[in-house]
């Protein structure tokens, strides 16, 4: 069988997705700092303690400057013994937001357990090192300290074990059949697409990935032919054992697309950093240069270099600059970001005059960015991006 054609497409910038990645980088950093303050036995953090966290948090500015931007969340005060050492504790507003977040975690705990099980079920050994899961905690909607507060509550689902190298790992114990159904399969089960899924279950057809090409690509004949050939290949569930598939075959390439599609579908914001996926490469049975998939299939994935890092997003997860499916935690995070923006606007006007209730009762306007277009232009700065794309699969650590 001849291999499917490979069409190299030029990268096209998507301003709305770039804007989302930009704003949610600050949102994620603020959430992680909030959790760090909560974990601190003193109830506050000193500027010295987080001085070297900038890279870890993915920020483009020093952490001290970042925290001072958002007085609605972080209250600054001098250290009791060292007057020139700034300290930060959580405001009443931040504490109120955190209590609402914890309530959502408890209410939707079964959803979190299923999501975590499904990530583990995609791996070869049904095991992932905890150090590889920690960076994905925010993206997957796991509670802070999930290995201590969530995992012990479900001994029939999870177990923390030690690998041969002594590293702590999380292992899935059960294999619930209802979990081993991919998001792509679930999306085809109901509604107008139900017939397509029933035919797929009988082996009479294949499942097609949703495609949303940048402007101009979808109408190109060579692109249409390429994607039709790709879509006709059998769909391999990411929960099936793939070790028998020829690693150099087109079938394996489609299976890799399916795994990456599923993993991104399981994230709350339908996106994550490229390096977080790379740390799972061996367990997910992905090829060494799997990140080429992101640029080879721009109708499915979008790759961004915003905030000096590489983020991959699932195109179908967004429509006109907004998430298509909102999880309660993403709604909560939208409110959190609104409070951040309020602090930025009022920091020179005495934000202490606003009570937590006044801030939280304000209408929460979506900060997701431009709505007027999904596909944008190849413009200034693209040559720099193209250079980065050519080095996408180079070995070694990323800046993430």
From TrEMBL:
<feature type="domain" description="PORR">
    <location>
        <begin position="12"/>
        <end position="343"/>
    </location>
</feature>
<feature type="compositionally biased region" description="Acidic residues">
    <location>
        <begin position="368"/>
        <end position="400"/>
    </location>
</feature>
<protein>
    <submittedName>
        <fullName>Protein ROOT PRIMORDIUM DEFECTIVE 1</fullName>
    </submittedName>
</protein>
<dbReference type="GO" id="GO:0003723">
    <property type="term" value="F:RNA binding"/>
</dbReference>
<feature type="region of interest" description="Disordered">
    <location>
        <begin position="362"/>
        <end position="400"/>
    </location>
</feature>
<dbReference type="Pfam" id="PF11955">
    <property type="entry name" value="PORR"/>
</dbReference>
<dbReference type="InterPro" id="IPR045040">
    <property type="entry name" value="PORR_fam"/>
</dbReference>
<dbReference type="InterPro" id="IPR021099">
    <property type="entry name" value="PORR_domain"/>
</dbReference>
